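in:
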């Protein structure tokens, strides 16, 4: 699943992301695209036990792959 959060003002991207993560099954991955690095989201993901990887995109946005597990 891909969730494009570009153009949204905080806290919308984080709220949308957390809602989508709640629907993931173990081992599934959610990819989000944000205008900026989601620093506060990283803390939440670490606390909840999600793995994540961030890649800077050529357009200046960030793609974050989040896996439940």
């Amino acid at each position: 699943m891909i969730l494009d959060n570009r153009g949204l003002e905080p806290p919308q991207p984080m709220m949308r992301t957390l809602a989508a993560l709640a629907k993931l099954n173990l081992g599934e991955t959610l990819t989000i695209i944000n205008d900026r690095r989601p620093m506060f989201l990283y803390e939440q993901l670490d606390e909840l036990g999600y793995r994540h990887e961030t890649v800077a995109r050529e357009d200046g946005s960030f793609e974050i792959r989040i896996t439940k597990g």
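note: The helical segments are 12-21, 39-48.
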